[in-house]
Amino acid sequence: MRTARTLLILPLIVVVLLAGCTPPATPVSPDAGQTPETRNLVVMTHDSFAVSEDVIAQFESENNATVQFLKAGDAGEMVSKACLSKGNPLADVLFGVDNTFFSRAITCDIFQPYRSPALASIARDLQYDTEYRLLPVDYGYVNLNYDRAWFEEKGLAVPQRLEDLIKPEYKGLLVTPNPATSSPGLAFLLTTISVFGIDDDYDYLDFWRDLRANDVLVTDGWSEAYFSHFTVGSGGEGDRPLVVSYATSPPADVFYSEGAKTEPDSANISPPGETFRQIEFAGILKGTQQEELAQRFIDFMLGVPFQEDIPLQMFVYPVNQTASLPELFTQFAAIPSEPVELAPGLIEQNREQWIEAWTEAVLR
């Protein structure tokens, strides 16, 4: 019996001795070995939105987040979808409201105010909303582009003002997108309203009737006008050497040639007071569950990396005054003097009736 008890006690002594020689264990945190949960941010945009993958990857890395872009049609369609989902938003952030739909978006009351510190680097005249519901992100100019070689070969002077377009020598030369279905088309219509007025002795509808008599071609959208009918955009397949487009289309012509061109085949016609400045805004949608992350994304959009990516992605200008422009912009783009700007409230109040009157005068 004594031997048996000894055999039982010896293992116990060994265990006690080993325990005394072992350092105490370090307490383990409940979160050890785990990473913070990745957050998801949904950004609703119009169909023309574009940004470099590495730029978005920078935001995602810095914020342990993933960004999903929800494309929702043109600017008008996007705003309508956002308004219809008020209170139960389809996204956290909305980008792409321009000054032609600004008042409609504000009236819907779908945005949460946020005063980004990045606004200090943005010109005051681009900041439309004093309550910081919509913040400017980029801007561009809608004007006329012309085919340089075509006019040179024909020995025809390039039109200098809008009123020149109704002259007989320019019959059948202009293509424009429909203002009812196209953002640049609407911007051009608003330009003619600013230039010729309403209910004057010769107003904007008189000008459009004269354009119709001079065989203007109207397309549903900008892409069709530029790439199917404009002689430059169509690679010579079109028959219209004048198009309603953007002041940044010439540098885009060089960029997308992938080295085949060192200068654009098109150039701008940007008369003072006859070019529309289009501003695009972004805002945080009410009801977001990611308010702090959405604020960070707004700051990021207004910061230099995103702003310097804008020109060669969407061919518009960055609003941040510290952002550098690519050489193509400084060489071939144009910043027109005295751009047309109509008050957003005036546009919202009259947009539909202006478009209906235009449709009656031009298409029926």
Question: What descriptive keywords fit this protein?
Answer:
364 residues; D-Maltodextrin-Binding Protein, domain 2; 14 helices; 11 strands; disordered N terminus
User: How many extended strands?
Assistant: 11
Overall helicity: 25-40%
Chain-averaged pLDDT = 89
Oligomer: single chain
How are helices and strands ordered from N to C?
A: HEHEHEHEEHEHHEHEHEEHHHEHH
CATH-defined superfamily of the largest domain: Periplasmic binding protein-like II
Structural class: alpha/beta
Termini distance? 117 Å
Write down the domain tally. 2
Low-confidence stretches: 1-34
How many whole angstroms does the radius of gyration measure? 29 Å
CATH architecture of the largest domain: 3-Layer(aba) Sandwich
Strand content: 15-25%
CATH topology of the largest domain: D-Maltodextrin-Binding Protein, domain 2
Q: What profile does the largest beta sheet have?
A: 11 strands, mixed
Classified by CATH, the class of the largest domain is Alpha Beta
Total number of helices: 14
How would you sum up this structure, described in words?
The chain is α/β, with parallel strands linked by helices and 364 residues long. The chain has two domains: 39-140 and 278-332, 3-Layer(aba) Sandwich (D-Maltodextrin-Binding Protein, domain 2), CATH 3.40.190.10; 141-276 and 338-362, D-Maltodextrin-Binding Protein, domain 2, CATH 3.40.190. 38% of the residues lie in helices and 17% in strands. The protein has helices at 2-21, 53-63, 75-84, 102-107, 148-154, 183-196, 204-213, 222-229, 249-255, 291-302, 304-309, 311-314, 327-332, 344-362, and strands spanning 39-45, 65-71, 93-98, 111-112, 135-147, 174-177, 217-219, 242-246, 266-269, 276-285, 317-318. Strands 1, 2, 3, 4, 5, 6, 7, 8, 9, 10 and 11 form an eleven-stranded mixed β-sheet that branches. Strand 1, helix 2 and strand 2 form a beta-alpha-beta unit. Helix 7 (204-213) packs parallel to helix 14 (344-362).
